[in-house]
Amino acid sequence: MPDFSEKELTVLAGLSEFNAETIRVLVKNVTLFEDGNIEIVWNMDDFLRDV
Q: Residue 48: pLDDT above 60?
């Protein structure tokens, strides 16, 4: 899992578009299902899960 500084997280949180390099850093896996659903596994912990 990448270790982001507070400044980097602020920049990433404000993005509305992602280039290929940003996707490589942030996304661990993408699964496309036959029914049209998409699952995205992010390359970081869900910090809100414990709130």
A: no
